[in-house]
Amino acid sequence: MGFEHLDWIMRAEGCEINLTGSSLPPPEVEVSLRGVPSPPPHAGLDELREAVAERWGVEKEEVLITAGTSEANLIAVFILKERCERVAVEWPTYYPLRALPGLLSLPTYHLPRRAEGGFRLDLGEYRGDGVILSHLHNPTGAPLGEEAWRALQELEAPVLADEVYGMFHPLRGLAAELRGAMTTSSLSKTAGALGLRVGWLIADRETVKRALEIKNTISYMVNPHSQMAALRILQEEERHIRAWRGRLEGNFSELSQWARRRGMSLVGDGLAPISFLITPYFPNTRALAETLTIYQFLSSIRTPDGQPLKDSRGRPTSHLKGLLTRVANYLKEDVRLIFVFDGEPHQLKQSTLERRAERKM
Q: The whole model's pTM is what?
């Protein structure tokens, strides 16, 4: 499944608002590379591990620095494979969290996050073995919820929690709170440091030792210069956090007001740069959501009970342009929509009298 349309989105001209992003702008930091060890320790620079440990309430020996959250998640799923016969994966979820177990031939089943429950995690269908989840939830931005949190505390099973969007949530990392939990994160989303490729895995000491053994078969080291930049961001977090939180709260408030004026609403509370738009305008069917999943689209529109949109006759992807035009007609907005159709990126231009789809090669 390719991401060609993401490159096109970044180069597309004439779009006033881009709702496909899922991170904040990068902070401005000054980094000195003097004295940086090369190569760095395999587990990561000691100073960075200490900073992560202090920020998330654990010990340095419980932190492994990785090449981004993606590598941390891969390592964690390797460990789940060693400890579990199957894993329960939240649904809907960030696509790699669902795909990684399959790559390692680890059977999965779904734990639903339903719209009627505010997309809180529902452990009522948990049948044992490991759990994979995200907190805050990716892609809706919803928190776990108190009931799910209490249920997780009672589990005697390994848990992988992708917390790349959890930086501003009052609950500190789940690994510090849950016995047997592994959490993964980075500064890519809530701190805007997308290009650093520096992440971490937090777990108990024995798990971190095993994770390092696995990591050494995947990548020898994480770029020490990127690690120094990540360290500086954490050291200066208090200086940046007001701007980060202010931007999130302002954007969420403005978009929420826009949605409410049109009879819609947003999921979450503005603690992460992601959310779901809940709209009453379409029937409760699946074709459009399946299309968006196939092409790794980064936005989704759902009905009040959380079901994906679909043409009322259940028609296939060839009618995607018509569906998006219906969105424009309902909203009566002079806006531009970016979407992917038949593997090609498009831009939907519309005005009051004329709405049409144009192919952008």
A: 0.73
